[in-house]
Structures are given as structure tokens and as C-alpha cells.
Amino acid sequence: MTQSPLPPSPVSGQPDYLERLNPEQRQAIETIDGPLLILAGAGTGKTRVLTTRFAHILLTGHARPHQILAVTFTNKAAREMRDRVGALLGGPVEGLWLGTFHSICARMLRRHAEYVGLTTGFTILDTDDQLRLVKQVMEPYRVDTKRWPPQGMLGVIQRWKDRGLTPDRVTPAEDSEFGGGCARRVYADYQARLIAVNACDFGDLMLHMTEIMRTRPDVLAQYHRLFRYILVDEYQDTNTIQYLWLRLLAKRAGQPSNIACVGDDDQSIYSWRGAEVENILRFERDFPGAKVVRLERNYRSTAQILAAAAGLIAHNDGRLGKTLRPGREDAHGEKVQVVSVWDSDEEARVVAGAIERLRADGHPLSEIAILMRAGFQTRPFEEQLMTRGLPYRVVGGLRFYERAEIRDCLAYMRVLAQPADDLAFERIVNVPRRGVGTAALQKLHLEARQIKGPLTAAVARQMADGTAKGKSKAALQSLMQGFERATETLAREGQVVAVEQLLEDVGYLAMWREDKSPEAPGRLDNIKELLRAIGDFQSLEGFLEHVALVTEAEDSAAEDKVSLMTLHGAKGLEFDSVFLPGWEEGVFPSQRSLDEGGLKSLEEERRLAYVGLTRARRRATVLHAARRRIYANWQDAIPSRFIEEIPADYVEHSGQAMQERRLTAAQPSVFAFGPVSSRRPNYGHAPRVTDVYDASPTDITVGTRVFHQKFGYGIVTDVDVDRLQVQFEKAGEKRVMASFVEVAV
DNA sequence: GTTCGAAGCGTTTTT
DNA sequence: CGCTTCGAAC
């Protein structure tokens, strides 16, 4: 890293990294001291500003690399920032405090672990461990786990942690909500158990560090001296504990708070996991004298898409206020397409067909995405893409490190690295099946309690004193021998050989080799991949730390495939063409969301819609179906309110199904579908949408000759409220909605 | 302790 | 519909 400023550009007299920035971007970068809020709308060059600002602080000599704290939410964002800062500075920079909230806290906590009763080598638990632990802790309370599942309890604890509440800070009033009033005590016991096994869950990384900085002024002062500048990405996604942690670090007596937060309140979509939009809305009050810079020039999308998105998001209240403007002159573009289809199957066909056409026109599939509200919506699209031979990838499924076989292997490694890791030991003690079930494990727990030691010590003890007998004795003995041999190998030949030997020795690999299920070979491949990855690290501990904090799979974005993912998963990404299916009331906005959170949730859903639209560079296509298959049965659906919230000027409707909500929006029933069948009251005086619907309600009876947009002419053979059985001349017998046919003349 | 079948249930997800 | 989970029978 060089401390001298870069040579100025010969043309402008500015360092060349400041060239081609717009005035707002420049301001966000060149405002170095004092609190700064950068409101960065979608596609306004946020990452560029953040990284350039980082480099600028270094290159102007305001700080050395290790004196800047830069926090992100995801490892991906951290990696990108690290790479781009490196690129600006002409090479990788060492010693940066740049990472996710959690990785930075882990790094800090390893230094100060003793203040919360841990040792520096503490384990970071995965969700399986957490659940196992909370189950154990709940047991003595005899909670009805039907009503109060351990997952729910874990959720309550996590939310408390997100809010910075240690067990003693949970008020009795807040306690009563779950588990019949024992949640607070379970939480306290859970924390005690974590300390006892020298472990942390994810929430603890933040909670412990915040607690340490609250109670140890010397530690806090140390970081105050260290960090001259703080950069925070995605500030709208911070939860309370992250906010408290940042505030502790940023507020330095007698010195300015050099904290720069980048975020977009319109893209806050994670309130359900503890994010508090209020943090960003409150920034100017939290940090008096804060400068606010708005980045509103969007270099990503066409003017039409931007106007559509802006019109939509304008329906939200309580925004900081920000309007995306097109940053490129050339990008007028096409209107947002809204396609009305008959049912969810047709929706998938329409999208797949459109993708085929895009491909035929030379558009790479990697520039096409289908973004939906929920993961299960991918199915019909997968089927359609598959049958047409269009390559696709589903982003965000089960991640590599979440696979059972990988977690098993990791548990083996954890016991190898730290024999006192009871939770890891519990996971693998009977995998593969070796006849050590709950009964044997119970005995081991008792023994461990008596000797006040870990389970592995209890095993050794039982081997020695003859408590163990028969099958489980032999099994445990051979397991422990496996660990002993691996420990020797680890010292002599390193972690890769040791782990492979261990997994072989204890019969884990054999278990999958003998498994006849079709997934087994894939699992063995995954394990092979895992073994390969261990070699990339200095030590077993280093590898375990990495996998505890980095759960994401490797990016395979380079392949030319259509991306299928949730709207949440798409945040931060962009594609030339974006398909947004399932814009129907109840699906999007999600009914469940609305039921739980009312107006606040509706606004969050709307932000999600905004995020979806703004992912598109050139083409955005919204779809809604009149009937959707949900689980086993078909349900009628009306178009999402979000569709009509997009200003009509920027929308082009197509498709044959009902196109406007107006017909039915005021009606109580979601089944009201415009003028329909004979036995259905015709609500209100709704205007007709198209001539297709001009059949008078009473005209349709058995024997009526009707016309259907998709199936053509046919004779009605049965009427069931609003559904008809029709014998079509060409398409055969079909069941169709009465609203989708007209009486043939 | 294991295995098999019925019952239940069904957002969004990172670390 | 298709998955996971739990309980009963071997």
C-alpha cells in the first residue's frame, strides 16, 4: 500500500479514480470526516462509491488500512469490496478490518473471550447444534413441544439477541409470549450451557462483543483508537444489536463520529429477521450534524422501468424520499410488460416461451432471471425450462455447508480439533449407526456431569472403569481409536490426510459407499470436495472458522443459465431481462405477511416488488394468473394491487385473462372474477375489461355453445357454480372458468 | 434401536 | 402435491 497520493490525471488534475463520477458520488467520497449517510437507490453505483471512498481515505493519508472498519452483511459483499479496493490500490491489501458483522465480531471476540467466560478457541455453532442444545435445555421444563416447538424457542431467543437483550435484560412482560412463561429461563440456561461447552451461536458473536464494549471501557477505548473511519454497507438491514455495536464504536468522546453508512430504505426487506428500518430513518438524529447524500442517478435500468418502479414505491409512507432518475440518455426502453394468464401452468409456459425467443434473438441466458416471492414457486418454471432444454440454475437452495453429509464431516473435524466439543460429538456418535443410541448417550451425559468434563472424557472413563459393555463399548472404543489415530496423523501429515483417514477409519465413507440411494454418489463427491477445500487452509481450526462464518456455496454465475431465485435472493443483482411471476393477491403481497404485520408488512412487500423491478436493466415482465395451483388444489386469484400501483404510462398489458383489479378490488371475495356464471351474484357495476366478457351471466347453461380464447369453440356439458365442463371441438373436454368463455353466436 | 407408515403442514435468509 | 416429523411396531 502506498501512502503517497496517486498521480493526478493529466487531463483534469484529479486522481483518476475520481473521474467519471457524478457530483453526488463525488460528494459521498470526498466527505471524509463526520457522520455521513449515503442514500443509494438501486443501481446508483453504491458499491463503487463505497470502495472508492475506502481507497480515497487511504490515498489521501487520512488513515492506514487497518484503521478503517468496513462492515457488510454477506461474505459476498465483503469479498467484492476487498477485491475492488485492492484493484483501486493496485494490489491486495493486508490487515484490513473488512468483513461481515459476524466475522469481525468473531475476530474481536477471540481476543476478549475471557471477559464473557469463553476461551479464545471457542466454537461457533451451526443451527443444528443450536437446536440440539435448546432441546436439551427445554427438557426439564416439560414444555409441550407440540405447542411450543424448540425451533420457536430458538427463534424467540434469537430475536432477543438481535435486540441486544441478554437474559437479565428480558423483562417478565416480554417473557410470557412463548413456552408458557419459561422462555426467559430457557434462554438463561441456554446461554449457560453455551459457555459451559465453550461455544457461541451467531447471535452471541454480536451480543458478547457489544456487552464487552459496554462494560469494559478499556476495550472500547482500544477500538476507538484503532478505528478512525467506519464504513457500513446495507445500513437499512441492520438490526438493533448491530446498531448498538456500531454506535459504541462510532461515538468517541471529543472526536467526530467518522461513520459512513450506505443504504436504501426502499430496499429494506428483512424486517422479519430483525432488521430495523428505523435505524436508517433515524440516522440524522443518532449522529447530529450528519451529512446526507442522495444517489439517485441510476445507471442500470431503462427510464421506463425506473419510472414504473418509482411510481410503485411512491405508495409507501415514511420514506426518506428519493427518486431514481435515469443516468443514461440512451436508455428509454420498453414499457414494463404485464401479462395476464389463465393459470400458473400457462404462466410458466409463457415465461419459458419468452425466454426461448430471447435466446433465439441472441440474448445470453445468464442475463435472464425469474424472480419469485417464495422458493416453492420455482417448480413449474423448472419443469417448463427442463422440457424445452433451457439450462437454468436455482439460486439459494440448500447450501453446500448445510448438507447433512458435510455437516457430519465437519462434526468429525470439530471433535478432532477440539475433543471437548460435545455438540459435535453428539452429532456423530451414532453416524454411521453403531448402536450408540439415546440410552447410551444418556449414560455418557451422566458420566460427563459427574466428572465435570466433556463427553469424550466420559467415554474414556467408561472404557477404563468397565461401565460400558457389549455393543456400544466396542463401537465407542473403535470410534475413539479412530480419533486417536487421526490426531497422530494430524501432527505428522496435516489436516487433509488426517481427516480423510478419520472418515475412513470410523466407517463414515463406507456408510455412503454402501448406500444404494441415488443421492449417495453425489454425497461422496461433496465430501471429496470438502476434503479438497481443507487443503486451502493453514490449519484445521482455520478451516473450521471459515466454514462457520461462510455458509454460502461457490458462485457459478459464469455459466450461461437462466437464474431462478427469490426476490430476496436477487437483491444486489441485475439482469437484462427479468420475469416477475405470481403477482397476485395472497401470493405477492403474501397473505401470510399481511396477516402478521398489516400495513408495515404490506409496505415491505411493496419494497420487495420495487427490488424486483429494479433488478431489470432492459426488460421487466410482470405476470399474474387467474388460477393458481397451490399444493393440491386450484385457487382463483386476482391481480396484485402492486400491478395497478405502477403508473399506467409505463405499463403495457397483454394476455387474455382478466387484466384489471378494478373489477373486483372492492369485493370481499377473492372469487369474484368479473361477470361470471349464472349462480354467482354479479357484484357491483364493474366495467367490462374486454369484449371477451360480454356474455350475460345467465346465458351459460348445459348445452350452451361457448368460445374460449385458448381452446376455441365447445359445448357446455356441466355447470358447477363458476366452473364449466366444456366439450371443445378441437381441444377435447376441459374444465374452465365461466368467466373465460363467451357465448358463441 | 431401527424401520416403516401415517399425519401434518406449507414465506422470505445471512451469518 | 411432496416433504419432514413423529409415533408405533418389529
UniProtKB/TrEMBL annotation:
One of its GO terms (molecular function) is 3'-5' DNA helicase activity. Gene3D superfamilies: 1.10.10.160, P-loop containing nucleotide triphosphate hydrolases, PCRA, domain 4. GO terms for cellular component: cytosol; DNA helicase complex. The keyword ATP-binding applies. It catalyses: Couples ATP hydrolysis with the unwinding of duplex DNA by translocating in the 3'-5' direction; ATP + H2O = ADP + phosphate + H(+). Keywords: ATP-binding, DNA-binding, Helicase, Hydrolase, Isomerase, Nucleotide-binding. Its EC number is 5.6.2.4. It is an enzyme of class 5 (isomerase). ATP binds at A40, G41, A42, G43, T44, G45, K46, T47. Residues 303-572 form the UvrD-like helicase C-terminal domain. SUPFAM superfamilies: P-loop containing nucleoside triphosphate hydrolases. Belongs to the helicase family. UvrD subfamily. This is DNA 3'-5' helicase. It comes from Neoasaia chiangmaiensis.
